[in-house]
Inverse folding.
């Protein structure tokens, strides 16, 4: 299984510590955005994860965590997006 972390919420920028806590715990829970009552448990066990893709526009806050991710044996790539949108359109980046 490939873990997408996360195209919608930019986990590396805003939720890096949460992600690392979930990785250490070995699972996370995911809410279905179309049915908020449907909650799935997703294994983050190394035996179940083929790789992780970190989607971000600002990897800096997550860089200290990458060594631990690697040290735990997870394969990963970082999709770092660079664009020329004005601050008015992306004020939180």
């Amino acid at each position: 299984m490939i873990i997408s972390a996360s195209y919608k919420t930019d986990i590396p920028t805003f939720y890096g510590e949460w992600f690392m806590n979930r990785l250490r715990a070995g699972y996370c829970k995911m809410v279905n955005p179309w049915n908020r009552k449907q909650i799935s448990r997703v294994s983050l066990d190394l035996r179940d994860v083929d790789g992780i893709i970190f989607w971000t526009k600002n990897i800096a806050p997550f860089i200290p965590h990458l060594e631990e991710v690697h040290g735990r044996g997870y394969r990963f790539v970082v999709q770092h997006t660079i664009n020329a949108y004005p601050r008015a359109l992306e004020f939180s980046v």
